[in-house]
Amino acid sequence: TPDLAKAVLHDQDEIVANHQQTVASTIITYGGQDILFSKNNSSLRHLQKTFVFEVLNNKNLEAYDSLRRDEVRKTIKNVFSRVGTPVNISEISFLTSSNVVTKVICKNFLENGAKDSHLGAELLMVAAKIVEIFGRVNFSNIFPSIAWFDLQGVERDMKKEQKNLDQIFKSIIVDRIKYNSKRSEDGVEHQGKKDFLQTLLELKDAKSLNIDQIESLLLDIMIGGIACVFFIVAWIRNVFKRPNKGILGKTLTEAAGAWPIIGHLHLFAGSQAPHKLLGSLADKYGPIFSIKIGVLRALVVSTPEMAKECLTTNDIAFAGRPKSMAVELLGYNYANFALGSYGPFWRDMIKITALELVPYRRHETRSHLRVLEVKSSIADIYRTWIANKGSSVMVKVDMTQWFHNLIVNIILKMIYGNRFSSGEQDGEQFKKAIRRFAELLSTFVPSDVITGLRWLDLGGYEKKMKKTAKELDVIMDRWLVDESKDQVLMTGLLSRVKEYVKQDVYGLSTDVIVKATCLAIYAGGTDATILTLTWALSLLVNNPLVLRKAQQEVEDHVGRERKVEEADLKNFVYLQAIVKETMRLYPSVPLLIPHESIEDCIVGGYAVPKGTQLLINAWKIQNDPKIWANPFDFQPERFLTSDKNVDVKGQQFKLLPFGSGRRMCLGMSLALEDMLLTLASIIHAFDFLNPSNEPIDMTVSPGWTNLKATRLELLVAPRVQADLYKV
């Protein structure tokens, strides 16, 4: 409130005068020698007084009125010359303001023979990178004991930019001192306007300023100017892109705490997972509210009723997906049907992919390859046990890695017709590239939500994405011409695309469409399945009675004299309930893949304008005590009794692991079969224990997916006869 703000900043001004020293600020300001981060003492007061009265006085500022006016007029002339064509207002505003700031700092130097004609641009780029680094979440500031790890790379990156900035400033200062000395020797007095650098150098001896302080003050001016530009850009966007005032309906409640430009992004910077954070906001604001993700608006819904209204009544309105740099660069310019825009191309690709996946699921070769892959992977565990058991009955196995290798090879066999063995060059290249692909696809990129930043490529994400996309493209090109493999899915897609897709309309080649579709299937079929299997086995080991009951069910139908086959899966009713309960407690994508409204609509009586992102908090719905009895307990039996009619297809909107509506996961049935076959096979073949004899750590990593914070390493021992481990 204003009263409390006054109490803090007026009555207690002296007490709260310090700013927090962060890792980044300590490095870039030479230990706090600037005004912003210096401690409140006599040195700071001296520096402030000198800076305000000697540098930022009215005389100096008025002297640069003509410079500011000239830059603005140049900008207006530039925009006028481009009437009728798209204009990047964000970039133009940024460059105009930045040119003013740069010239005010070192105008005379730049006009009197700078060694490097690009010095102003270099200075601007370095300052922009420093602003970006300042904006990063840095756990080292919160937990100083782990600062030496430099987990986010803030210290490394800031030291690099500090070195670059130091070189630029020292070059400017040294050359200016030489220039001033020469003019002094020649008896030439300074004429015209003094820039800030000239003023500070003249004050250096009189006011006891050192070079580090001068550099820090120049940096304060640069960063202050650039940060101001971001506010201007946000204001311009707000003026020109206001929500449609003509939509009938109430105005959505927006969660409190939004900051200019970044919106509510700062709320996601802590250790709390996004779905839990939004769940707590739902407790405060209700089942439907909005937040700002950067300059973009997002609708958050947290009840089955609201989810149903979004995905049935407004199914077409929310059929879009948000555009992002990752989907553009890694998805062949939005040819990835799972993440691409809604429209004729998407409808064609859904039809083609469904036509291929359904018969492929029933294909005998597919069934045989999947079962064979599971058996081979189980044999790998058995060989590890034989090689390492010694006198011990049980051997430690990294089940996280085992699940990853198994599911990756199952999907690759489906797409490419082959598995990659350890050490195989093409396979290792693909695994590294696809790992980067998955990481970059889920990486937060500032330019996706803050207008006008992309051209700066803060963080180098665009460069990384282009490199990864090229590596994957080269590998997949080889797959397309490799006739030695039984490429059931890839071959089918090629023929379907040639038959159905109008390439002259969409401007995409057959090869590009097939490669984008294969990557979409891979991305959708690996991580979610791996995460669910990891959580399922963790829950079973933490609940030994449930594990024993599941093992008994498998034995009742399979016995101990043969292996689990696909034909057995329909009999494992309790195991199916375990998989459902796992996905209820730990949905792999707790907020589902975001939707975007492609037209204005009404949800719950509230007006939702076109271009609004939709976040459905599936985790909140699936753990709501108003919907589920004992929601946080692992109780598979609920799906055999009170909730036996609830399935994972999202029709009741109580259980949404695969989404619902026209953009729900196409590979749901394949994923469920993979999970059931894998889980049934491993609990039939092995007993499991936690090495520490303590409950398994079920901590979730903060992020947009439900990633287990620690690896699942378990002690395993065979539980069937030795010949059943042979492939």
From TrEMBL:
InterPro entries xrefs: Cyt_P450, Cyt_P450_CS, Cyt_P450_E_grp-I, Cyt_P450_sf, Plant_Cytochrome_P450_Monoox
Superkingdom: Eukaryota
Entry binding sites for heme: C665
GO MF, one annotated term: heme binding
Residue stretches spanning the membrane: 217-236
Keywords: Heme, Iron, Membrane, Metal-binding, Monooxygenase, Oxidoreductase, Transmembrane, Transmembrane helix
Pfam families attached to this UniProt entry: p450
Cofactor(s) needed for function: heme
Keyword Iron tagged: yes
Subcellular location: Membrane
UniProt key word Methyltransferase: no
Main subcellular location: membrane
Name of the protein this chain belongs to: Cytochrome P450
Native species: Ambrosia artemisiifolia (Common ragweed)
